[in-house]
Amino acid sequence: MVRPTLETRVARASRFARVLDTALRIPGTRIRFGLDPILGLLPGLGDAIAALLGGYLVWTAVRAGAPRLIVGRMLANIAVDAIVGAVPVAGTVFDVAFKAHRRNAQMLTDWSQQPAAIEARERRAVLALAGVLLALVIIAAAALAFGIWAMLRLLG
Fold this sequence. Notes:
With about 160 residues, the protein is mainly α. It has one domain (about 5-155). About 75% of the residues lie in helices and about 5% in strands.
């Protein structure tokens, strides 16, 4: 089995980010959106799902050997997107504007184009991956809890 190169992985991650954030355009405007704001129409749950989907980009960065700072910034983008996005209506507008997944894909692309990153060996950092997965579960749970709380506050 042939392992994909860093370049191939980054390209896949960028395409996935496009699906989540910019795949569609509102006709007659320059406003683009993707699956993330559509999922965000389900308060809390949709943002939790989008956060978990966004974890693919973080997982790609970890497997590629990206520095902890990059991975941490990517997780922070997902957290902001999920928690603010969980606010009904305003959160969906935020999702359209913030585009956390495109930001993460761009960070991964920028990092991968540095000479030191191109030579970086793929690491099987099980502990790092476990930490990323735990962080994503916490972010998704926070988005879900915040969405439920916001809905309860709005409804009465």
